[in-house]
Design goal:
By secondary structure, this protein is an alpha/beta fold. The protein has 9 helices and 22 strands. The strands form 6 sheets. The chain has a 5-stranded parallel β-sheet.
Length: 429
């Protein structure tokens, strides 16, 4: 069976490998770079910048404690070039991995037809098609918005701006605010509603007051005009380099004539990642759901298995999320805020030891139904939060309850405080 996958990002590449390993003939079409937005423009780029920002913050802390006398000067051009070099190497690894799985990679822009795809003047027939064309930055309907930067061209910035205005109140906004603030920019974040509204109040407060304490956050503010040198708001003018972080738009235009799409342009799918068109599937950001790399990979696997005749459904329970700051912020959101809440300060340990004296070791919070022991939500701010949330997501999906942590054994020293809260709640079960 011939399977064509369009899009070489996390969703598409994972789908292609899965289908090839099942034994099908798979062709993957990518019009830019293997690895997609995550590797080449977003997640990994943030990681590269954030490692430098963490170094600067740590140097400042050691200086204040009298341990060192470091005055790091950042060569921003070398930072961006280093990030490009690193992502290039990772992309070569991903490309080789994909080809070793038996996937044929075609570079070029695809055009969809009934039963075949055209690329570079050639037609490729398919029995099953998987669309994983990702997403792009949402450009708001604001005068002059086209003059602003987005995550897509941060690597083109030549030097650290003296002032930066970030429009948006989500993860991307917080991450770049932390990065450029650490590097010396005076950063203002402008939010139409609440900043990081997906977090609980305690976690949000810690992020704003501790991790982004040099950033000015403005909530419930409307931007009326964007200019190359600043913005106008209902409260007046602000000067600085403007970065948009106002959300994402599915790249579904390629397939809009073939499958049904929603009000935001997302390709409509069911839990099997089936579209309205028989034998056509979609996965990743283009379906407009939870736009994250792990979810895209999960959806890619589900799409591939169903395309190959193996029943599978996407499972969106207990999805772990993270924000890359001085400490990782990891969370699994709760839909029910009426359960019992408990939180404790973060633990001292690797990556947090020298923050104890400043009282900035993070925090961990849990939302639990004490009658049943069901864990409804978690959030953690610590050097280990990102990893903790991934394993907690697996445990929660498998039905683990608070009382199951009664005999939990940690690896010491650790900054993970989740198990401490769980052991506390286990006494109520």
């Amino acid at each position: 069976m011939k399977i064509v996958v369009i899009g070489g990002g996390p969703g598409g590449r994972t789908a292609a490998i899965e289908a090839a390993e099942i034994g099908e003939e798979v062709t993957l079409i990518e019009n830019n770079k293997i690895g997609g937005k995550c590797l080449n423009e977003a997640c990994m780029v943030v990681c590269g910048f954030n490692d430098v920002a963490k170094f600067v913050r740590n140097a400042e802390n050691f200086n204040e404690l009298g341990i060192t006398d470091l005055k790091p000067e950042i060569n921003f051009k070398n930072v961006t070039e280093g990030i490009k070099g690193t992502t290039d190497k990772i992309r070569h690894v991903l490309t080789d991995e994909t080809q070793q799985a038996g996937v044929k990679i075609l570079m070029g822009t695809a055009k969809l037809h009934e039963g075949f795809v055209s690329v570079n003047g050639r037609d490729y027939n398919y029995d099953k098609l998987i669309i994983a064309t990702g997403s792009r930055a949402l450009i708001p309907n604001v005068l002059g918005a086209g003059t602003a930067r987005t995550y897509k061209n941060v690597l083109k910035i030549r030097e650290i701006p003296e002032k930066m205005i970030i429009i948006g109140g989500g993860t991307i906004s917080a991450e770049f605010a932390g990065i450029f603030s650490a590097m010396g920019s005076k950063v203002h974040v402008l939010c139409r509603s609440r900043f990081l509204k997906m977090l609980d109040d305690d976690t949000r407060s810690y992020v704003a007051q501790k991790l982004l304490n040099g950033v000015e956050i403005h909530e419930n503010i409307e931007v009326t005009e964007i200019r190359p040198e600043g913005v106008s708001t209902e409260d007046g003018n602000m000067e600085g380099m403007v970065l948009l972080a106002t959300g994402m738009v599915p790249n579904s235009e390629l397939a809009a004539h073939l499958v049904d799409t929603g009000s935001r342009g997302e390709i409509l799918v069911n839990k099997r990642m089936e579209t309205s068109h028989e034998n056509v599937y979609a996965a990743g950001d283009v379906v407009g759901g939870i736009m994250s790399t792990p979810v895209s990979r999960m959806e890619g696997v589900v799409a591939a298995r169903n395309a190959c005749g193996i029943f599978a459904e996407a499972d969106y329970r207990f999805i772990p999320h993270s924000i890359s700051l001085q400490y990782d912020v990891g969370f699994i959101s709760s839909e029910n805020r009426e359960e019992t809440e408990g939180y404790i300060p973060g633990s001292a340990g690797p990556g947090a030891f020298w923050s104890v004296l400043k009282g900035e070791t993070g925090l961990t919070k849990a939302i639990v139904d004490v009658k049943t022991g069901e864990i409804k939500g978690l959030s953690s701010i610590s050097p280990s939060a990102r990893t903790n949330m991934a394993y907690m997501s697996k445990l929660l999906r498998d039905g683990c309850k608070a009382q199951d942590f009664d005999n939990f054994m940690e690896v010491h020293p650790s900054t993970d405080a989740v198990y401490k809260l769980m052991r506390f709640f286990s006494k109520f079960g």
